[in-house]
């Protein structure tokens, strides 16, 4: 008889994803509102006197009480992000190993074998790069959140640039890996099988991967588009300030608007995780109880096997007597 586990916590991954994405979104909205209400003079000021009708996100999360709300939300947000990075790393590696097994089973020429080996090596390094970029993105987000422009402008600026670069490059690597290791192989597998023979769960997974890939693609291109606009207005603002004609310029306000849009696009990109790991759940269990259950189950199976052997032996013996 199995022993009931004392501590079991199961959290659905889509639910966890909603929590991960909602924290920065809630923090951004709450910080913006509180900063506008209580510290309006600080967040709308500019070094060169430009007209700011939208405060920059760095200003909003750099003054109290908005910065405390933002930091609490980011503290809750960041730990699951490291977990998601590990999940993507393991999932991509598993899919790559399956792809390698299928290649080995197929009869190909020496040229095909060489090209596939090169693709396998490239994908392996892309997986590592994708994981490093995601970890770098999270670390830079922590730097941006906890080191404001008023405390250390240079470090905050470098962290923001690194965050933007790592986030964009991570989107690219994730799209490549997702397309060639998850979406396309699974789609080809379902095509090879009879459509009537596929289960409802397999069709659901295909739809999830398809929706995830399409939305990743759209959000990535939207993010690149607004990033280009952000760079344009940033350079325009720097040009006006360096030439002493910042008064009357609204370049910084448009830069700030692009900041908010890009942040929401990145949040949406991360929200696609709920499709990628829709069948996953985070489980916390009692390790000791689980080991005892496994030992009891093993002993029960051994006893049942021994009883079956004894029964067969006695049955054969009775037949011989007859």
UniProtKB/TrEMBL annotation:
Q: Does the keyword Transmembrane apply?
A: yes
For this UniProt record, the keywords arranged alphabetically read as follows: Membrane, Transmembrane, Transmembrane helix
Pfam families, sorted = Frag1
Its Gene Ontology cellular component terms are: endoplasmic reticulum membrane; Golgi membrane
Q: Which residues form a coiled coil?
A: none
Q: Where is the CWH43-like N-terminal domain?
A: 13-279
The answer on whether this UniProt entry bears the keyword Transmembrane reads yes
**Which segments cross the bilayer?**
12-33, 68-88, 125-147, 159-182, 215-234, 254-277
* Gene Ontology terms: biological process: GPI anchor biosynthetic process
- How is this protein named in the record? CWH43-like N-terminal domain-containing protein
């Amino acid at each position: 008889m199995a022993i009931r586990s004392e501590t079991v916590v199961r959290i659905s991954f889509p639910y966890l994803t909603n929590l991960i994405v909602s924290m920065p979104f809630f923090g951004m909205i709450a910080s913006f509102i509180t900063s506008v209400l209580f510290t309006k003079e600080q967040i709308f000021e500019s070094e060169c006197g430009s007209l700011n009708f939208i405060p920059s996100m760095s200003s909003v999360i750099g003054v109290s009480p908005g910065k405390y709300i933002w930091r609490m939300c980011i503290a809750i947000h960041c730990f699951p992000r490291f977990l998601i990075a590990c999940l993507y790393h393991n999932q991509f590696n598993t899919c790559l190993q399956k792809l390698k097994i299928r290649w080995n089973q197929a009869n190909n020429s020496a040229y095909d074998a060489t090209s596939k080996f090169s693709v396998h090596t490239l994908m392996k390094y892309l997986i590592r790069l994708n994981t490093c970029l995601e970890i770098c993105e999270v670390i830079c987000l922590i730097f941006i959140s906890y080191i404001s422009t008023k405390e250390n402008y240079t470090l905050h600026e470098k962290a923001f640039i690194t965050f933007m670069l790592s986030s964009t490059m991570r989107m690219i690597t994730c799209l490549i890996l997702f397309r060639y290791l998850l979406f396309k192989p699974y789609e080809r597998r379902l095509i090879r099988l009879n459509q009537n023979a596929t289960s409802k769960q397999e069709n659901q997974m295909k739809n999830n991967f398809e929706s995830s890939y399409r939305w990743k693609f759209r959000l990535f291109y939207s993010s690149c588009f607004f990033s280009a606009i952000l760079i344009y207005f940033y350079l325009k603002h720097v040009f006006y300030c360096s030439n002493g004609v910042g008064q009357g310029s609204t370049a910084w306000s448009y830069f700030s608007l692009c900041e908010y849009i890009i942040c929401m696009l990145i949040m949406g990109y991360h929200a696609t995780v709920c499709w990628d790991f829709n069948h996953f759940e985070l489980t916390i269990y009692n390790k000791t109880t689980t080991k005892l259950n496994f030992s009891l189950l093993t002993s029960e199976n051994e006893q049942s096997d021994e009883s079956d052997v004894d029964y067969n032996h006695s049955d054969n013996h009775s037949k011989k007597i007859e």
